[in-house]
Amino acid sequence: MRVFVTGASGWIGSAVVPELVQAGHEVVGLARSDASATAIAAAGARVHRGSIDDPEGLAAAAAAADGVVHLAFNHDFSDFVGAGHTERAVITALGDALRDSGKPLLFAAGLLVKPGQVVTENDPTPVSGPDSPRGGGEELALSYAEHGVRPVSLRFAPSVHGDGDHGFIKTLVEVARQRGVSGHVGDGGNRWAAVHRSDAARLVRLALERPPVGGVVHAVDEEAITARDIATAIGRGLDVPVASIAPDDVTDHFGWIGGFFSLDLPASSDVTRETLNWTPAGPGLLDDLATDSYFRDPATIG
């Protein structure tokens, strides 16, 4: 299968590309920079130069492929609505290019927020419209099932972890390093789901090869790790105390990530495991936090 991948040199994409290549697929990766192009080529994929701000270029690459895996996203938290508008334009370009083809369109999405409840693959997204989170991209993409496309929402756990992670967990580590304390919000009882990057990449391949009916998969290994346990592991790794941060002080203490770290995001992947015969095998998040990979001082690296 010839597969067009956006975000091919990103944290998840750089694991997905070799997973697909090793399975015998021909991969074409979107590259915005020379560094991305070099990384994509080194992984055994072909390079398509462009960006997610070029809908026509994306559409052309999608039309020439047997399937699309859209993993790129503009994580500009200063203009999250604008980033959502871009995402919606990308989904539209890709979906229209694949219209009436029967080809799969996989796209990255986040888990739903249902405080106090464990989210499942059967829970529909509650958001829609261009000004909603991620531009209402999930609802829009899934609607292309009515137009001859096989869309699959890849709902990734908020913690896709592993050596080299520079996402949410690494950001929390750096906040704790700077503050001299590893914090959690309130009693720290809110929960996060997690998955190792290698398991997430394998799930993407399985969903591409056998797009599930219903179009939603959960890239979730561990269903519910408390924020308190995450903060405790970070405190242990940095040898700093662990403390409760009052809800009113979350933004001052954590910055932009405080709002995310306050969320209750437990999720099940029972349907995904059964449908795709997916069994996560990578280490858990707390196991990863027990190594030094998250705690190397950036000032001493390189």
From TrEMBL:
Gene Ontology molecular functions: aldehyde dehydrogenase (NAD+) activity
CDD domains documented for this protein: SDR_a7
Gene3D superfamilies linked: NAD(P)-binding Rossmann-like Domain
Disordered: annotated span: 119-138
SUPFAM superfamilies in the cross-refs: NAD(P)-binding Rossmann-fold domains (SSF51735)
GO cellular component: cytoplasm
NAD-dependent epimerase/dehydratase domain ranges (all copies): 3-212
PANTHER family: NAD(P)-BINDING DOMAIN-CONTAINING PROTEIN-RELATED, PROTEIN YEEZ
Listed name of the protein: Nucleoside-diphosphate-sugar epimerase
Record organism: Williamsia sterculiae
Organism classification: Bacteria, Bacillati, Actinomycetota, Actinomycetes, Mycobacteriales
